[in-house]
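General statements about sequence and structure are easier to judge against a single worked case. When preparing material for the folding task, we compiled for one chain both its residues and its backbone structure tokens. The amino acid sequence and the backbone structure tokens for this protein are reproduced below:
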Amino acid sequence: MNKIINTKPIAILMATYNGEKYLDAQIESILSQTNNEWTLYIQDDGSKDKTLDIIKKYSDNNRIMWVDSGLTRQGCCMNFMTLLNMVESRYYMFCDQDDVWLPEKVQISIDKVRELEKTNPDKPILIHTDKKRVDADLNIILESELNRTNLPIEKLNKLMKERNSLEQLRLGTFIAGCVMCFNHRAKEVSFPFNNSRMQDSVIAMAVAANEGIIATVYRPTMLYRIHTHNTCGEVETSMLNKLRNITNTLNGNLRMYYLYKVYGGVIC
């Protein structure tokens, strides 16, 4: 698979699939960023709606690249990871097709990574920010995903330190790919990738396992849209679908527990 060399410092990686309803708003929110040190790479997973037509509207914009790897129906996780594997850049951010980025998301994220690189040269570094949860029409449901109960900063710092630890990440990660920003060294330690868990979980574990740095930024940088057609993350569903999601989650957790007991250590 041919590599794509990003001429900008930051590669924003977007995986799409049947995302016509909200895709325009997401792309426009990226174009409205205060920081312009980025290229947006979009890979589609075989959409049957007008997603590709929307992407093609931006074909004249040199900050947006449509990547065609020849692969389709990979699923959300592999769509992101094949894109990550193809693009060579200094820094990376994942981007869902249906959210809205607040104007300073890129600047806040890259500032924190660069700050940490100064004191931790050559180490894998991953930061994640807070986000606001909204409904399909962008009405706010939750002002803060990280601090839902308004914990004092001392308690919140302690909680985040525990959650960012390798021991906790092995059990499950709360770090969503859509709020991540990480350096090239973090990418390097995340491959080879065997699709045993979602990409955000595997990358976070790989960074922690390789003596990397994981840091939390408490400022919300995006509107995380919950609706009936989310392809990654949480979904607004009927009770029947909620029960199915719970069953699938339990089955997935049992599978991961089995793999951990058999192989031990980090599964990546």
Summary: Confidence is low (pLDDT under 50) at residues 248-268. The radius of gyration is 18 Å. Residues 239-263 form the longest helix (25 residues).
